[in-house]
Amino acid sequence: MPDVRNTFQQAKRTGVAVGPLVVSKSNPRYFAVDSREDRLVYLTGSHVNNNLHDGLGFGLDCPAEPERFDFGDYLDFLEAHGHNFIRLWRWEQFKGQLPIAGVHCCMTSQPWPRTGPGAATDGKPKFDLDRFDPGFFDRLRERVVASGERGIYVSVMLFEGFSLHLTAAPDNIAGHPFHGANNVNGVGIRSIDDYQVLPLEPRVQAIQEAYIRKVVDTVHDLPNVLCEVANESSGGGVIDPKFAEQMKVGATAWGDSTRWQYWVIELIKQYEEEKCYPKHPVGMTMQFPVPDPARVNAPLFDGPADWISPGSGVGLKGYFRRFGWVGPSSSVDCVGGSTYEADHHVGPRDHYGVRGTNLHDLSSGVMRHSPHVGCADRVVFGGHQGPRRYALPGGSRRRLDERHQRRGALGRGHYRRLAGGKVSREHLPETD
User: Fold this and answer.
1) Which residue, 343, 336, 345, 291, is CA-closest to 318?
2) How far apart are CA 418 and CA 402, in angstroms?
């Protein structure tokens, strides 16, 4: 198979990302540029768990030196495929594993410096949670800036939920800076319930608030920023014991993070208002597990988020029956994500209120909702890669949409040629 990147070698650059984005008043299927209601923006992109941190690699043990993530190559890939959106992934464990994929997640750097005294569970100095590590926030800003210069919008992920309750115990907690053995501040969480389920211990919540404000201060002036509370935090449900054993998580039930996520959203909005910062869209992602999979999206629709990343509403077993299970032999190609990231679609929240909307019309490659995120299936950077052909449809749909976006509605017929994930050169419109 020819290299897809070479196929688009002559594609023109998308230009600098302009913003901030707002939900379009005339067509809430889309985001619009705040200063120009007629400038609609269709988001599509590829994300990966280590595009903010270093330290993701094969094997379950942390290496002496963390694996480096080549962010420049990542941006080249996005640009070559016509993508304009990423989730800048916050992974909170400095020591962790995802055994089902055969990888370690020993992520560095973290927002707080490792000053000691004393050693954490990985033998390195403990964290001081009352101080910030400038290197982390410098990298955060640099990567958002670099993305914007390529025309790419960035969802700045503040917290990670999945890694706290759905990666292997005990390091899902024992490898977190807020575990009692890892900091000099007397903070000691024992599960995700102590970190993302209200009420929290006041000291924990105060440190979180300081961190949130620091992130907002770091990127407030950048036009290509969206904010995201957390990836796949818990929703108060129960997982199947066999699935828990497979994931090696050591538990089957956790609390509901909904009120905590609402608190984060409101805090961001209040702080931007207080500081007279430009307002950026704040998003909320589907939770897992939830008591009733059919109502997985209710907290998203009912909450204060500007955009949402809804779930399938069919439950874990129904999801895998419909879209296929990515097993241990191949899931390393898209660590932490499912095929096309089909359990996450991003869009202004009002758009998804339509009864009967099919959020997962992906098996044919026909995307009827926009903006959205399409994970480049089985493509992970920093050593993991797979078939690149799956990255094609999102960028191609975006090019098609740029032709038709001002007609007031997204025409479904325009995308039928993309069915089955196949794209022909004659189907690609000219780029601006």
Assistant:
1) 343
2) 16
